[in-house]
């Protein structure tokens, strides 16, 4: 049996490996010129940092097992307080500016309220199609009351999502948010949120996974329509 997998992000590569293990002949098509999707590890003069998705929550056992299989033991996140730098000013995260904290609370309250109205999967939310016309960036701009609060929320969510927020649809993001609405400290990476990272960066994980594919990923193929 021949199977085409669209997208060489972590889900696409893992799907291809699982199908391959069952005897299928798998070809992976990817629009970008690399594997990883919204996950990308950058190496610069010996330093490694994540330019895309960075964190792994504590309650994601399948992803934990995947990282351990291909990259080794997970790295635990450094706990707060951390330092925040904004326009030459510095604050520890347990002493943040009042306007920033107010905007963080507003965004969390609004996102929880909107997400509680939604169903999964996302296509069931025809009554909330208006959210599909908005981006996550516009959502922040509509609700943040200060430039510093908008900057803070953008920085945090950009790290979580692994992409610019004007490229992320609000409806899809809110549907993902439904999994988090009963957790505490959603925007601060505490508790079970953002608990681990992949050792050596996610790039190392993808390199190991890609090596197991029997066929090369075909880059530069953009999905334009389904028939």
Q: What's the architecture of the largest domain in CATH terms? A: Alpha-Beta Complex
- Overall 3D form: globular
Radius of gyration: 19 Å
Helix fraction bin:
25-40%
Named CATH topology of the largest domain: Polyamine Oxidase, Chain A, domain 2
- Helix-strand pattern: EHEEEHEEEHHHHEHE
Beta-strand content? 5-15%
Structural class per helix/strand content?
Answer: alpha/beta
Q: Which consecutive residue ranges, at least 5 long each, have pLDDT under 50?
A: none
Assigned CATH class of the largest domain: Alpha Beta
Number of helices: 7
Structural write-up:
The chain is α/β, with parallel strands linked by helices. It has two domains: 1-53 and 201-227, FAD/NAD(P)-binding domain (3-Layer(bba) Sandwich), CATH 3.50.50; 78-193, Polyamine Oxidase, Chain A, domain 2 (Alpha-Beta Complex). Helices cover 36% and strands 15% of the residues. The protein has seven helices and nine strands; from the N terminus they run E-H-E-E-E-H-E-E-E-H-H-H-H-E-H-E. The strands form four sheets. The protein has a three-stranded parallel beta sheet with strand order 1-2-9, covered by helices on one side. The protein has a two-stranded antiparallel ribbon with strand order 3-4. Helix 1 links the parallel strand 1 (2-6) and strand 2. Helix 3 packs across helix 5 and helix 3 (98-115) crosses helix 6 (170-177). The longest helix is centred in the middle third of the chain and has 18 residues, at 98-115. The two termini are 20 Å apart. The mean pLDDT is 91.
